[in-house]
Amino acid sequence: MPVITPAAVRKQIAEGATDPLYLIQGEDEVEKSALAGEFVELVDEGLRAFNVERVHAGDLTTGDRLADGVASIIDAARTLPMMSPRRLVIVLQAEALLAPKRESDAAARALERFEDFLKTPEPQTTLVLVAGTLDKRSRMFKLLTRQATIVACGVIEDQADAERWVRSRVNASGAEIEPAAARLLAERAGADVRRLRGEVDRLLLYALGQKTITLNDARELAGPAALQDHWAMTNAIEAGAAPEALRQLALVLDAGAAPEQVLGQLGWVVRAKFPQLAPAQVSAAVDAVFRTDLELKRTNRSSDQPRILLERLVVELCAGKRAQGFGPRRY
Question: CA 176 → CA 126, 200, 211, 216, 237, distances in Å?
Fold first, then answer.
């Protein structure tokens, strides 16, 4: 099944031509929640009490609860719509259902039953699964890629993608933004979707009532640049070029970037890029980021230790890209 954008989903909703099964995933919690909520437009307002059901899968923390939750979701999805052409079931925090943290016989049986349902979804029901980023190697995710329409929220691959995100967000508010203004915000926030959202939200508040947001508006409100060249360090890591990655890291830190901010960018590289660039090294890369986060929290911020920790992480990620393994773990 295809991977589509939130804008494409909104067009399907407006046309009343939705698919039976959706997986909305990504790191942009606000966009995921907002998009899931827009599916209710498929059902007339007066009939939503009978045809719209929401399930919070985050509460399914044991095998027995998971089994009960799966049964409830399947029953809701198999129930015929009442006086409406379509029924809607929205499952929030679906990662607890799709990738439970605790394994047990009851959980395994529940997942098997849910997998059987996903293979033959109810055509008169739209089932929307809202989840964080899932392990693409898992059996459940592979099944969903065959059966569900995948919607990626908050995934920003490059500056052009960031600019499109800004324009889409501003247009959704009923305004327009000059291309140069969108470009400025994208340069300042880079791939950090949370920072990008904050910049846009502040700008929309500042320009409240304006039909067009200008470059001058963006200059007035945009925060300091996150990076001298936001993509240079990530590009160097992707290439496995440790010397260049270290040089770019130094530029970033010398420009005043907070160590936590840089660590967030490196974490994004691991989550967004390593599954394709170095799939065998994903687990080790995640461990390296996690270890660095713990050690940063223990360091004296006025010392050189945060820089040293980030330098070590950059070298390890570059080595991982070349599939040469990671250094020993020290917690």
Answer: 32, 12, 6, 14, 35
**Which CATH superfamily is 3-153 part of?**
P-loop containing nucleotide triphosphate hydrolases (3.40.50.300)
Which part of the chain is CATH 1.10.8.60? 159-221
Question: Residues 165-218: pLDDT tens digits?
Answer: 898 889 878 899 999 999 988 887 777 777 788 788 888 888 888 999 999 888
Q: Tell me if 187 sits within 8 A of 60, measured CB to CB.
A: no
CA distances from 188 to 150, 250, 253, 260 (A): 29, 18, 15, 16
Evaluate whether 233 touches 118 at the Cβ level (below 8 Å): no
Return the structure tokens found at 59. Answer: 């509460």
What is d(CA 266, CA 315) in angstroms, rounded to the nearest whole number? 11
Please give the Cα distance from 161 to 164 (Å, whole number): 5
Question: CATH assignment of 230-321, given 2.60.40, 1.20.272, 1.10.10, 1.10.132?
Answer: 1.20.272
pTM, to two decimals: 0.57
Could you tell me which of 316, 303, 305, 190 has the C-alpha nearest to residue 246? 316
